[in-house]
Structures are given as structure tokens and as C-alpha cells.
Sequence to fold (885 residues):
Amino acid sequence: MAKYTLQVNGRARQVDAEPDMPLLWVLRDLLHLTGTKYGCGMGVCGACTVHQDGRAVRSCQITVSSAAGKKYTTIEGLSASGDHRCQRAWIEEDVSQCGYCQAGMVMTAALLLVDKPHPTEADIDAAMSEHICRCGTYQRIRKAIHRAATEGKRS
Amino acid sequence: MKPTRREFLQSVAGAGLILAIDARAFSATDRTADFAPNAYIQINADNIVHLWVTRTEMGQGVRTTLPMMLADELEVDWSQIRLEQAATVSRFKGIRLRTSGSGSTVGTYNALRKAGATARVMLVAAAAERWGVEPATCRAQAGTVTHLPSGRTFTYGSLAEAAARRSVPENPLLKDPRDFRYIGKPMKRTDGPAIMSGNAKYGLDTRVPGMLFAVVKRCPYLGGRVASFDRTKAMAVRGVRYVVPIKTGLATGVAAVADHTWAAMKGADALVVTWDPGPNRYFDSDQFLQEMENGLNESGYFVRGDGDAEKALASAAQKIDAVYEFPFQAHAPLEVMNCVADVRSGSCEIWVPTQTPTTAQEDVAKQLGLPQESVKVNVTLTGGGFGRRLFVDYVPEAVEISRAIGKPIQVVWTRSDDMRFGFFQPPSIVRIAGGFDQDGKPLVWSQRSVGCDLSMFGSPTEQDLADSLHYFKDGSPWGAFDNPYNFANLKADFVRRNSPVPTGPWRAVEYPAQVFARESFIDEMAHAAGRDPLVLRLELLQPGDILKVGDAKIDRGRLIAALTLVAKKGNWHGPPRSIPGRDWGRGLACNIYSDDCFIAQVAEVSVEKGTGDIRVHRIVCALDCGRVINPLGLEGQTESGITWGLTAALHGRIDFKNGAAVQENFVDYQVLRLNEAPVIETHIIPSDLPPGGFGETAVPPVAPAIANAIFAATGKRMRRLPITPKKLIT
Fold:
């Protein structure tokens, strides 16, 4: 066991953990941030996506020892009151069905719009196809990304 | 005579789902100022209206549509509503909490409307009495009763106490559908904001004070068990507190119980277990599929029999036949199976994402030797159900572990557990033979389906099996039994072949396999006879009547309407698209789901020359499912069902080798991703007929529409799912 200090949603958080503990479980079980989801445990479904120093990463593939000192944002910290333009667009387009995958989707989409303020269909394909939605909300995800893009920059 | 409350509640429940409930027992607060005329509604003095949702939210939108029905008749504003999730508590005693068969809308529409209307009538009567006026001069709207002549108002909250003392009206007048405020309007999901902020609580997000986490190392062999184990290495993993062998559930093994999920996973990995592989050590699904195919040579149980199919086939001027295969499939909802159990002396509380909380309660009561009311099952949000969560095998194992260690625990399945140990969609082999007379008119349809019984429904008894009409009486297999096409000579039978693999309902249950075969073969018949597949279908649905088979009433007219609309919107007779380097085609398929939903789809697909790369460009869907409660939800379910169907058509397959499932994660069990998702267009046929269930309806036509489009594009007939580029180029 060792102590690690992580920057999560703008706060320094200290955890006692084995060095190989994935960030996903640190967030969920030690910091009680359960908005980040477990889906596959091998980085292929995207449900556990968080921001690491402004990049979308799979928290199930990052060990706590390598996370120390880096800045993380989870779905809980994406906006102060759930009103990031992607969150609003997702609600507006009624994207969620079971909703389990959507936090990960939104985390990736939020950074896609930073990189490409007006993404093409191909940009959306490239960014979002690393995620799985078993309910099949893909069409509305596309619409929500376009809606968030046209809303311009906020948050 | 006025009905008693018991009678009233029984009557609103339709099928006697609700037994006596004392209104006072409903009050969560025991404040007398609250008004709770039935199990679904409670109006507090603060004018907040609590509506209880008795179905499990799995993404199909029940936590939106059920309150819409209640709120519409109750006449409350959407902003006044607080949703409560029904748990197995005395309030719902006698109500079987269960979500299945696309039945939530169908099963609650009348009951919830009546429940809302009852409360509204009582509130209006209470206001009228206070004012000393006739109730007819008062109107309820947006949570307020207004005396129309004077304009005086009372909020529902201020009437709650008085309304609670009134007798329950016999037959409250339901609204004229023209006055619906919510029903039929597009309503966004009530849980949308909570989901998007990350605050929505799924089963896996349940946290109970003092809770530990358990992961089970499970016997990989179907029906195998633990022979012996050594806990030393697992206990050496930091954070692991206990090692507990488990005997309950679907896949037994040894649990590592730890401070957090990761330690439990590592602990389970570290466990050294010797397995007794049991009787299925060499089970192989390829061999099983071959055995199923051999079953085509046996005679089966009667399913349908009109005219004389054998004679007609013998005399047919032109004959074709074909065999179709549908493999094992997994549900793979994104949230893995999980359950929190807190076993105390004399009671037990459960938190679980399940479609069947009442079954869980019964099972746990039996397991612990407790009266049923001592077990409380809380239903969380559910990260996908699709039929998998009709089973509660993960509940007894959580109970077993919690009881063994005397602490609350959460059992967490890994993704590999989920893929390997489910109640799989069983495979199916179908052979159909068809014939035409000398004039090219369709003369005969003869179908033999080889399939499995679902573990869910329990194996048929010997007495059942001695009855040659057993499957006919059961209306099974769906899609073969309710074949809507009008052949003078039509035969269908069913050959049983069961494997050691646990099987259960998967989205649309028996329809996907049977409809894949039926709708592919209709297409084959059309091409064999040089007919247009749409025109042939429309001809075979004449005279557009209601066909009665057993208990089923098959409305061919409504299916004709769906086909006609989809042909128009999908530009069926339009020119083909030309894409350089690719072959392009359109395919059509249709189905009737459970008598009450009518659906037709046109798929546009292209295949790359040389590589066989498949691209589904667009699926146009026309549907009639009676009165639509929430068109936005219906459209979402259409897109969802089509995406599910595409996974089955293009990717889905579970294999078993040496008694164990081969696929373990989304790497080897691929599901459709966004870059493969087509444009989906949904066209709803308006209807005043009773609402039909729609959670599954869109699935069955997808695979045949794709296969038919691929045939149109390439001339290659794909009869075995999944359809892959490799199959297309070999």
C-alpha cells in the first residue's frame, strides 16, 4: 500500500492503494465517484472514460501509481451543475436509454468538440466508435454532438 | 353497490394483480394530511405528487411513460411529480413486480389511467364539498381544482386530507383521448438529467455502510462445480477479507470478498481451485448445431397445419427449399450482473437491478427460511436488461456470501462472467420448403424448426411432451406459429433439441430466429418466381383479414398498411444507388409482434467488391403499435431494437468448446458500434387501438432485411448468422 495524491475534479485527493489499482476502482470504490462506469475492464467499451490532463482516457487501463500528479475530470466534474453543452444536448436529444454508457460517451464528445468545434460525420465516427452502447442510441448521439457543436463554446 | 377498495384495486389491475391495500398503509410519512387513494399515488400537503413506478427502468422508458399515463388522468403538472421506484414492501403486496414481454405499457395503460382518474374525482369532490357546489362545476388542471363560475381554486395539496376521507368512486370517467395532455406527446426521459450528471444510481453504484465487495471465481464448465480450493494466495491479496465457496446461483465457485472491487477481482484471480467439470466437459456448440440440423429429418410437434402441404409440394410445378441458422447469442448488457445483500438475523435487504424483484423476494425468503415480508428488494436503475435480468441467479449468491460473513456485500460479475455464464439465446435451425403451381402462384409453405426450450419457462413435463399439440397450444415457436402469410397449404412443426447451455428470453425471444428464416424465404420465393418481394408479400396477406390461429388474432390488414407505408418511405420501387467499388441493394422484411405490433423495414446495404465489407446505410421502418404513449420513446425503442438486430445480423455468436463458453468480452463478442450504425427512419402509423408493447418489436425484421438486401446487392444468399465479410467472399 502506498499513498497517492490525485487531482480529481479540481481537488487534491489522497488515497491509500496498491500501485496496480486501476483509476476506475479508485474513483468508484475509494472516492465514491460512481458516475464513471465499469463495462469491460479492458479498455474496449469506453464506459469508464475520464479526462486526463485534457485527454480522454480509459480509467480501467490507468494504474493509480501512474495517475499520481495528473489532473482528472470525471462526469461529476464536467460542469458545476450538469450543464456542459454536451450534457444539455444529450438531454435535449433524449439520447439516454439505460444510460449506463452515456457518461463515457459525453466525456469523449466534450473533448472531441474542443479538438474539432465542428466535427464531420467521419470525425464523430473516429472519436465515438471506441464506445459501446448496447441500447443503440448512436443516431441520437450523432445528433446531440451536432447540437452541442452549433451551440458554440460554453463551459 | 359500491366496490370495496379490494374490488376496486382488483378491477383497476385488470388481471387481478393488486390485492387489498389500505390507503393509510401507503403513507410513507404517516401524516394524515397525505392523500394516497391507491398504491401508485400519494399527494402530500405540500402539493408534491409522488407516483410509484412498478416496472423496472432498463432504458425502455417506463419511468417516463407510466407517470405520463397517471399524470394525464390525475391532471397534474409534470413539475409537481416525484417518481418513486416500487420495492417489494407492503404497499405493493399482491402486485407482482415484473418487467417482461414488452408488457409495461400494455399491462398498465388502463390500470394507471383509472388510478389517476380515481384520485382526480376524489380531489374534485373534496373541493366541491368545501365550496358547497356541484362537482360538475369544478375542473381539475395542473394540480389545482378550480370552481369555474367563481374562479376560486384549491391546490391538490390543500385538498389532500379531505380527499383521503372520501369513498372511492366506482367508475371514474376517463378522459377523452382528445384531451390528453401528456399521452401521445413526445416526452423526454425523466431520468435524463440524473444520468447525464453522473448521479443516477445503477445497481453497481449501490453503497451501503460497511459493505464489502465480492467477485467469484466461477467454474468454467457448464454444470461443473468446485472439487477443492486453496484460499492462501487469495487471502494474501491486500484488501481481501474472506474467501467463501458458494453453491447457489447459475455458475458456482469461490468468492473473494474484499474492501473494494479491484481487490476482490485480484483475489478471485489468485484463488487456486480444482474443478469437477461435471457431465458437460466435452460439450461443443458446433456439434450441437450439427445435431440440430440432423433434427430436420425427424418429425416434429404440430405447430400449424392448413390444407395438405405434402401433397401440394409433391404436385408443385416449381419448388425451392433452404435451411437457416441462428447461433447462440449473449445479452451482454453494459452493466454487468450485480447485487447487494444485507442479511440480518430475521430479515434481509437487497438492492438489485432486476426485471423480477418479486421473484427475487420469494427466492431469498425461501433461501433464508424467512417470511416473504421480511425480505425487502429495492430496484435500482438498470444498465440494460434485454431479458437477462428476468433471472435473479446473482441474488442468492449475494445472500449466501452476506450470510456467511455477516456483513452487507455487493457481488460483482466481471465482463467475462457475464459473457460466459448467462441464459443464452438458444440457437435455431429452420428449413422451409415452398412451391408454386403452373401459373407461378404460391401454393405451399412447409417449415420445420429445430430449437431449444427456454430454461426460463421450465422444461416441458412428460405429460406436456406426450401431447402432440403442446407447442401449438403454447403458440410456439413465435414467428412460425403466427406466420401471417396466406398459403392454402401451410405446415409448420417443431423438433426439440436441448443442450446443457442455460437458455432464456433474449430481446424478442423466439421471433428473431424464426422471422429471419421466414422473411428470408419469402424473399427467396419471390426471386425464384421472378416476383417483387413486396408485391408477393402483399398478395400473400390478402384478403387483409384477421387470421385466427389458436389464441392468436393476426391482423393482416395492419401489416399490409405497414408494408405499404415502408415501401413508400423507403422508396422500394426507386432506382438503385450506385457506389463505386460496391454492390448496393435494398431488402424488405416485416413481422407482427405478439398480435399487437405491426412492423416493416427496408434496409439499404452495400458490399465492397473483393473484401465483402458490409455497410448498412439506412433502415426505414414503418410501424403500427396502437395508441402511442410517447412517440419520442417509441422512436428511441425502434432505433434501439434495430441496432440490437444489427448486432445479431452482423456480429453476434457465442461458441462453446470443451464445455465452456469461448467468448469473454467485447473483443470476441462484437456489438455494433457507432461507425457501423445506419441512419434509421421511423414512421409511425397513428392508431386509436389499444397500445401494444414495443421494447422488442423492431428486432426480428432486421436480420432478414439485411440478408435480403445483400442478396439484392450481390446475388449471394446468406442463410447463417452472423453475416460476415468472410462468408460473402468465400
The mean pLDDT of chain B is 92. DSSP finds 21 helices and 29 strands in chain B. The CA atoms of residues 102 and 693 of chain B lie 5 Å apart.
